[in-house]
Amino acid sequence: MLEQDRRGVVRDSVGVGLAVGAYGVAFGAASVAAGLSAVQTSLLSLLAFTGGTQFAVVGVVAGGGTLATALSSGLLLGSRNTLYAMRLAPLLQVRGLRRFAAAHGTIDETTAMAVAGRDPILARLAFWWTFVGIYLFWNASTLAGALGAQALGDPARFGLDAVVPAAFLALLAPRLRAGAVERRIAVSAGLIAVVLIPFTPPGVPVLASTAALLLAGGTR
Q: Taking the model in full, what pTM does it have?
């Protein structure tokens, strides 16, 4: 394995970390707009560390949903990481305390970078560098977004109360640009949420549409 290959993997992984981590600013602002403090927002990023799940939680809270509904929605959306872990376990071959770190870092982007590796060594290198890059940049930008939104005062004055629905549309958009099956899944999940809004408690539409996405094979 050439040193050039290793440098290329590290470069690509850090690039993914920067690109994905920057999105944490939107989450920080959305979380504060939903009523969470900057400390609560940062803890959610530090401990949950999966963007779609975090946005699901604050989306339910912003809609007036209960804590139980918010956590249920987040756990349901994050359950796909279990499937990623099953795929990565034989590839990473971690033991001891490193298994906890690997489990925490198993998300969409680290999985994609790892399975794209041409051999196990490069795959493991890609996983860990992507994890560290995203984790550091995501948490730093989350804190920046939360503190910035908190300093502005009332989120509604600046339109920050629209960040959560806008973020969900951003998560949905890639599915609309994908194949016909993915578009049908995305549109169906959106319609489920819209239909349920007038008839169910806050948070239930997000939970139902998330369940529909997972059952149909959709991910973040």
A: 0.72
